[in-house]
Amino acid sequence: MTDQQTASATDADARPCILIGTAGHIDHGKSRLVQALTGHDPDRLPEEKARGMTIELGFAHAALPEADLWFVDVPGHERFIRTMVAGAAGIDLALLVVAADDSVMPQTREHAEVLKLLGVRHCLVVLTKLDLVDAEWAAAVAEEVGDLLADLQLEMLDCIHTSAVTGQGLDQLTTRLVAAARQRDDGETRPAWFRLPIDRSFSIPGRGTVVTGSLLHGSLRPGDDLELLPACQRVRGRELQTDGTVRGAIGGRTRLAVNLAAVRVDDARRGMELAAPGYLEPTQCLAVRLDRLRAPGKRLRKRQRLRLHLATTEVRCEIQLAEPVDGDSAADVLAQIRTDEPVVATWGQRLILRDDAGTRTLGGGGVVLSRARPWSSRRPPDHDTLETLRRGKPRDRLLAALRLADWTPPAPAALAARTGCRDAATVEKLLRELGTSGRVVRLAGGAVPLARDLLEDAATHPVARLAAEARRNPRWTGVASAAWPAWMPSACPATLRPALAEWLIAEQRVALVNGYVLPAGHASAMSDEDQRLLAGILAELEAGAYTPTPVADLKALAGKPRPRGEELIELALARGELVRISDGIYLTAGRWNALAGIIRGLLAEGAGFTVSELRQALDSTRKYVVPLAEALDKAGLTRRHGDVRVAGPKLPPHG
Ligand SMILES: Nc1nc2c(ncn2[C@@H]2O[C@H](COP(=O)(O)OP(=O)(O)O)[C@@H](O)[C@H]2O)c(=O)[nH]1
Ligand SMILES: [Mg+2]
Question: What pLDDT sits at residue 167?
Answer without folding.
Answer: 95
